[in-house]
Design goal:
By secondary structure, the chain is mainly alpha-helical. Helices cover 60% and strands 5% of the residues. It contains 27 helices and ten strands. Strand 9 and strand 10 form a beta hairpin. The N terminus and C terminus are likely disordered.
């Protein structure tokens, strides 16, 4: 294998390995035995395909198809391992994808690619979302650079298809002219009729070979086009692990892919988003307005020393001040943001420059998208922006998906990664130019002003070298010697330029190392589980006992009231109640979120009614009338209990230990509609379509990377 081949291979391997190391450094403590249980992040040993997992419960389907995937896979593999694997893969894919994006759109070496990977993994957005427990949202975040590459591939293959389609007609006209000209030349010599027939036959053979090559080219382009579409669908499906992730990837795809391919991209996005779109349509929860208090509660937040716009530009500003690394709670946040923006600003000019026409639109579109997703959340946090948001969520169904506006700052990551890589390359070039300036040769080689590379004087080579015209020098038999001479000359030039390339590589590597160190130093507490906040916890054995004893009909009501818990084994921060993912029956949850000293109301009403009945000491029959068949009491978590003891004393105790108690409510009413079975079937089909889209893209990418050929087929000579 040549040195160039080895360089291209390592150019891809280094960023992948580096990104994996970064991912492991970030989530290290979570990889031990146990489960993720941190704020909104909940993993359990086993979960079940309940109505809520399919998005058909009373609450809005915010966790589909995530919950269905875990319910399906955890029947075979421990659910905690699945969540850890997805989280590590997401961070790994984010860094690797950013590096690949910089390589494809900017053609930068390994050093700048590693800077792009660092920007994608090591930033405040990742830290804050990890502390908030949004592991599945990070899957959508990681899919963004790969979605850009897939959409770019579709644009490129569409152009290649048009080019290949035009080749057969051109080849036919050219070969017809060749046949006619050769026939005329040889028909003039009567003594060479046999030679003329041979030449005409050879021309026809070459024409047929060219037509065959054009046909193979069309087939190849069709295959590449299908693979590009399949990979795009897989990226959209991976991002669609949550509705917000689907919106993120869909936005990137629609911006990049171009108008001609927009309909196809929209169709793929609908399939990738089918689980939650179908759930909204079947359950009707999407038609209900959202609580306008959520707009103020989830608005982007200004960090110390930074306004809201500065916090968002630094990829920070999450609404929850408790889900922030310690280094971002002081004026050190200003230092970190300045360093990040300086690294990014150094490459904006190159990313926006005309450069390669094939990538120009994509690079500029990503820059504009980054500016928009920073500016709009900042405007949304102003007084009039809050009023506009409240107006929208109370009148437009589904607008509540956009109340956490800081989530969408993720769309700036691809542009930030490109700019950081370009800035690294630009600074390295300036440093290298300054170091080489005193040693300028007296007769420098011609320089291409567009990229600064050395050019060979092809005119002199072609017109004065015998190797360039072997027939004129000593006949047609010397052509191989001419080719050998040209190869030898190119090899000598490569050898002469090797020291310069080595100097450039070392200079770029040094600048890249400085950039990487700066980015890591200004956010040191992202390492090792965001300062140890992310760690694996172990559930008490009582959870499994409760799940095994829940063998009758009816939904589950939970005490104390509320959706969040503070268990002794989960740490000092509130965590989402694991009961809905731990138990085989649907668990009623009010959807009420305590945010910034207030409460944001959820969409469902039955859970609120049941909770009020429990806290008021209602009879078991009243609970049964609302479809409640079980009551679970979580003893070790603080929260309101009210007069629930009166209700529990009249119910049947099934299981009790230090942590949990389970009670049976007799004769619960069946609250499912007549079409419930049909709705479950439709929702299951939507989830299967999502899974098929995900796996198809993965298989297409693997086949494209490692093509399978039939033995001897490629080596068969044409006859």
């Amino acid at each position: 294998m040549t040195g160039r081949g080895r360089g291209v291979r390592w150019d891809r391997i280094w960023p992948a390995g580096y990104s994996l190391v970064l991912a492991l450094v970030v989530v290290g403590p979570l990889l031990g035995p146990g489960y993720l249980l941190l704020r909104d992040g909940v993993s359990t040993p086993r979960s079940y395909p309940t109505d809520s997992a399919l998005g058909l419960g009373d609450a809005a389907p915010r966790a589909v198809p995530q919950d269905w995937l875990l319910a399906t896979v955890s029947s075979v593999v421990d659910g905690g391992i699945v969540v850890k694997a997805i989280l590590v893969a997401a961070l790994w894919a984010a860094g690797w994808g950013a590096a690949a994006l910089a390589r494809r759109l900017l053609d930068v070496p390994v050093g700048p690619q590693l800077v792009a990977a660092t920007i994608a993994v090591w930033n405040p957005y990742v830290a804050e979302r990890l502390l908030q427990g949004h592991w599945s949202l990070l899957a959508g975040y990681a899919a963004l650079p790969w979605t850009v590459l897939a959409a770019y591939g579709i644009r490129r293959h569409a152009q290649e298809k048009l080019t290949v389609a035009a080749q057969p007609d051109q080849n036919l006209r050219r070969d017809a002219a060749d046949v006619h000209g050769e026939a005329n030349n040889h028909d003039q010599v009567n003594d060479h009729d046999q030679a003329g027939r041979h030449i005409r036959a050879g021309a026809r053979s070459r024409r047929n070979a060219r037509i065959g090559a054009g046909t193979r080219g069309r087939v190849n382009v069709r295959g590449q086009g299908f693979r590009a579409w399949a990979v795009l669908g897989s990226c959209l499906a991976a991002a669609g692990l949550t509705p917000t992730g689907a919106l993120l990837a869909g936005c990137v795809a629609f911006v990049v892919i171009g108008r001609r391919n927009l309909v196809g991209a929209l169709g793929l996005w609908c399939v990738a988003s089918a689980p939650w779109l179908v759930a909204v349509a079947l359950s009707g929860t999407g038609a209900e307005p959202s609580d306008p208090a959520g707009i103020t509660a989830f608005a982007a937040r200004a960090e110390p020393g930074l306004g809201t716009i500065g916090s968002l530009a630094g990829l920070g500003g999450i609404w929850n001040a408790q889900a922030v690394p310690g280094s971002r709670t002081t004026l050190f946040a200003l230092v970190g943001t300045v360093v990040l923006l300086l690294v990014v600003a150094g490459g904006i000019r190159r990313v926006a420059a005309p450069g390669d026409a094939a990538t120009r639109y994509i690079r500029r579109a990503l820059l504009i998208l980054a500016a928009v997703v920073i500016a709009l959340p900042a405007l949304g946090a102003t007084g009039w922006g809050l009023h506009v948001g409240q107006f929208l969520v109370t009148r437009i169904p589904g607008a509540g998906l956009f109340r956490d506006t800081q989530k969408y700052v993720a769309l700036a990551m691809p542009a930030f990664a490109l700019c950081a890589a370009a800035g690294c390359g630009a600074i390295a070039a300036r440093v290298g130019s300054a170091l080489r300036e005193p040693n300028v040769p007296e007769h420098p080689s011609p320089v291409n002003p567009s990229d600064g590379t050395l050019e060979r004087n092809t005119d002199i080579t072609e017109h004065h070298s015998p190797a360039a015209h072997p027939d004129a020098a000593s006949g047609g038999d010397t052509a191989p010697q001419g080719e050998a001479a040209r190869d030898s000359e190119a090899a000598r030039e490569d050898a002469a330029a090797e020291p310069a390339r080595a100097d450039d590589s070392s200079g770029t590597g040094l600048v890249a190392a400085v950039f990487i160190v700066l980015l890591i130093v200004v956010l040191p507490d992202l390492a090792w589980g965001v300062g140890g906040a992310m760690r694996a916890v172990r559930y008490p054995a009582g959870w499994q006992q409760v799940a095994e004893r829940m063998d009758g009909p009816g939904d589950v009501a939970v005490l104390p009231g509320g959706m969040f818990r503070e268990f002794p084994y989960s740490g000092r921060v509130p965590v989402l109640d694991p009961a809905p993912r731990m138990l085989p029956r649907d668990v009623l949850q009010t959807g009420e979120l305590p945010v910034r000293g207030g409460t944001v109301t959820g969409e469902g009403s039955r859970a609120r009614i049941v909770e009020k009945l429990l806290l008021s000491g209602a009879t078991p029959d009243e609970l049964a009338a609302h479809g409640v068949g079980w009551v679970l009491v979580e003893h070790t978590s603080p929260g309101p209990l009210g007069d629930s003891r009166a209700t529990l004393d009249r119910s049947t105790a099934v299981y009790t230990d230090h942590d949990l108690s389970l009670y049976r409510v007799p004769n619960p009413r069946d609250m499912s509609a007549k079409s419930h079975g049909l709705h479950r079937s439709i929702a299951t089909i939507a989830h299967l379509a999502w899974a098929l889209l995900l796996l198809t893209g993965v298989a297409a990418a693997a086949c494209g990377r490692w093509p399978i050929r039939r033995t001897g087929r490629a080596e068969r000579p044409d006859r």
